[in-house]
Structure formats: structure tokens, C-alpha cells
Amino acid sequence: MQREAAGPAPVRSFVAVLLPDAVRERIHATASSLRGRAPGVAWVRADNLHLTLRFLGGVEPALLAPVGAAIERIAGEIAPFPVTLGGVGGFPGPGAPRVVWVGVTEGAADLVALHARVEAALALVGIAPEGRAFHPHVTLGRARQGRSGPDLSVLAGPGWGSLGGVPVEAVHLMRSELGPQGARYDVLAVYPLRGPVGPR
Fold it and tell me: Which DSSP letter does residue 5 get?
């Protein structure tokens, strides 16, 4: 008996706001002191730094078009807005974090509202909400298996106050592919914000 051919593999994907090159480079340069003193962390490359709005995981290829249409619809209702990045922190806390991140010092409420709109749009196409609070941030690194991150209260130091402004002008649907050199991100689609009012 012949076996049925397997269908297309799910696409590991996420929804994000991409950062200007200058901001990514500034974040990467500021984090150099942490990288040198925390070998137990897998640090994100400068070109991969971004603001994640929603991690989707493996999405069936047939679902990507409905997902894109849902995001495009809400993007057309929302006006662009600015945010400012700054400060360093960690999840679950700064003492020995599993995730090290840069925070959002201005515009965080607008990002939370945008995330809520994205969640509601995705729910309409069958992607269940994450069910946890959304804390806008840019991931700098993740502790390797069995290791802990640096004590940020000791290592952070000056220079983290303001790391640059980001004009949030579009939402991006991204693909993530894991390889021996780390994750590679590709833009699947861009949905410009075109609305007359902000996220709220």
C-alpha cells in the first residue's frame, strides 16, 4: 500500500515591528559589556533585533494568507505612532534572568493596544490568544540550557537610558528558520499602518 505524501511543513513564524538599522546597532553596541561577561547567554545578532508582537509558532502554509489578511485589516485602521527604547531587564527578574531584554520607555501603551488588536484579529482565523500579559521588549539574549543570565543589577551600568526612537509604521509577518548559526528571519509580508487614529 502506498503512503500518502506528507503535506507542506508548518512555517515557524511571528508578528513583529522591525527596528531602524541605527537603533539596532546602538542596542548591540551598548550590550557589548553584557556579552563579554555572560558566556552562558545566547545573544541575538544585531540584524535580528526586533519587537515581537506575537509569536505564532508553526503555522500551516494554508493559514498564512488568512493570517495576513487579518493583520492587514487591522493595520489599515491604525495610524503610525512612535516608541522609544531604553533600559535593560530580564525575565523572570534581573538577578539571574532566562531572557535579557531592552524595554520600551515611551509608547508602551500603544504597543500593548496594537498587540491586543493583533490578538483579536488572529483569533478570528483560529489562532488562540496566548493567555498571558504582553510586555513590549526587544530580546537581547536567552540563557543557554542549564545556565542563567547575568546579574543585570551589577552589570548593566550607564548607557541604557535611551537607545533610540522607533517609528512604528508597519507590522511585519516574519518567518524564523533555525540553523547551526542561529535563527534566520525573513519577511513574509509587510502591512503598513494606514489608519486615521492610533492603536487605542
Answer: P
